Amino acid sequence: MSTVEIVSFGYLHDAPPTAHLTIDLRHHFRDPHVSPELRYMTAEDAPVRAAVLATPGITALVDATATAVTAFAFGPSAGTVTVADGCAGGRHRAPTFALALAERLRRDGHRVTVAHRDLHRPVVQR
């Protein structure tokens, strides 16, 4: 299989990184930021991961993105496939999605790296 780079990010911090696939998680998936008990946590915390992964549709999107990555990997040009996935602040949905996607892609035989561009930035006050 191929090498896949996954970068999670927050749209409120900077422009999306360059990628073959960019997944925008801002509008269709529940934001843990709205829960006071989760707001200052990150995807490194189990309650945040559980909340994001319990959102209807998120696992289907992980599966669909994995299918798209595999299609890119089998294209005529060999090379690394880059996936960027973003949410508002880059602390909850995007890094959780990135970790779930990485796990799925590794099961499919891909070599995967994950970087969280904005995970450790301060909470965006909205």
Automatic annotation (TrEMBL):
Residues 3-120 form the RapZ C-terminal domain. Coiled coil: none annotated. Transmembrane segments: none annotated. It comes from the Bacteria. One of its GO terms (molecular function) is ATP binding. This is ATPase.
